Amino acid sequence: MRFDLTDLRLFLNVHAAGTITGGAQATHMTLASASERIRAMEDSLGAPLLLRARRGVQLTPAGQTLAEHAQRVLAQVEQLQGEIGRHGGGLNGHVRLACNTSALSEHLPDLLARFLAEHPGIHIELDERPSEAIADALRNGSADIGIVSDAAALDGLAVLPFRPDPLVLVVPRGHALAGHGALALADVLDQPFVGLAEDSALQAHIGRQARRLGRQLRYRMRLRSFEAVCRMVGQGIGVGIVPLAVAARCARGARVQRIALRDAWAARHLMLCMREGAALPLHAQLLVRALVP
Question: Where are the beta strands (DSSP E) in the chain?
Answer without folding.
Answer: 50-53, 56-59, 93-99, 122-128, 145-149, 157-164, 167-172, 182-183, 192-196, 218-223, 240-243, 256-261, 269-275
